[in-house]
Q: What sequence folds into this?
């Protein structure tokens, strides 16, 4: 055999092996009518050709009934969202079940775009209620996309998993606000139970019993008005002696009686 043909044969064999291991995600999904809308979005955004260029991926596909308003968004937004549904590793149900601690952080195609921030390019997957749930790894994002079934798999090149709804990654359809911790709460004074404060205020405003009520040592009001010190201040009139000369005894008796009554 001519030695010049050997390199050509090697190249041909390598090319044949490469072609045999390649996959076409559009052709694969076209066999599943439930994912026709998802398949159309992959082709429309040009993401299908990027997926086909990969050697190993896991595609999280959304069925037609759960696609929602994804079809009405701009193509560039749809592409960003769909790239978070392409995991750069091979995962089938068996591998998910073998995850350590039943949870993992997955790297998506969006992470390689150079535009990801705050973990937008990663997904969290966790075992829950006899299945697995997926969600964005961005802080505060929900894990609410459930694994429904394994659509198809070709170990260890491509695995297509059907999920219940699109994965919502914060900020992909707009500006992602910086994530910061909530401000600390100020230490507010301890509030009194209802009614307690009003009772305390009423007690503070009310005059004390000691101030209003007379003490046991204080004399009664009547006694104070007739005390010796005040009695000394009363003007007294001297009793006129009844030794005057009267012309008649009856006049004398009447006059002296009036004087005595005035003094008593």
A:
């Amino acid at each position: 055999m001519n030695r010049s043909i050997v390199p050509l044969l090697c190249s041909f064999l390598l090319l044949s092996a490469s072609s045999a291991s390649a996959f076409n995600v559009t052709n694969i999904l076209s066999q599943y009518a439930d994912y026709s809308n998802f398949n159309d979005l992959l082709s429309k955004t040009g993401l299908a050709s990027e997926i086909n260029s990969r050697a190993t991926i896991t595609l999280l596909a959304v069925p037609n009934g759960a696609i929602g308003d994804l079809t009405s968004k701009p193509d560039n937004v749809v592409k960003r969202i769909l790239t978070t549904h392409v995991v750069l590793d091979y995962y089938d149900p068996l591998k998910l079940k073998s995850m350590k601690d039943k949870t993992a952080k997955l790297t998506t195609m969006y992470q390689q775009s150079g535009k990801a921030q705050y973990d937008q390019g990663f997904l969290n997957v966790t075992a829950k209620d006899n299945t697995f749930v997926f969600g964005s790894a961005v802080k505060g994002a929900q894990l609410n996309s459930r694994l429904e079934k394994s659509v198809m798999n070709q170990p260890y090149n491509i695995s297509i998993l059907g999920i219940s709804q699109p994965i919502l990654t914060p900020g992909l359809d707009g500006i992602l606000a910086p994530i910061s911790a909530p401000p600390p709460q100020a230490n507010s004074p301890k509030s009194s139970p209802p009614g307690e404060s009003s009772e305390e205020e009423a007690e503070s405003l009310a005059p004390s019993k000691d101030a209003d009520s007379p003490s046991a040592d204080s004399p009664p009001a009547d006694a104070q008005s007739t005390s010796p010190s005040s009695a000394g201040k009363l003007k007294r009139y001297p009793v006129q002696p009844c030794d005057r000369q009267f012309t008649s005894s009856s006049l004398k008796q009447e006059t002296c009686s009036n004087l005595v009554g005035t003094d008593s």
The chain has eleven helices and seven strands. The mean pLDDT is 76. The radius of gyration is 52 Å. The longest helix spans residues 5-21.
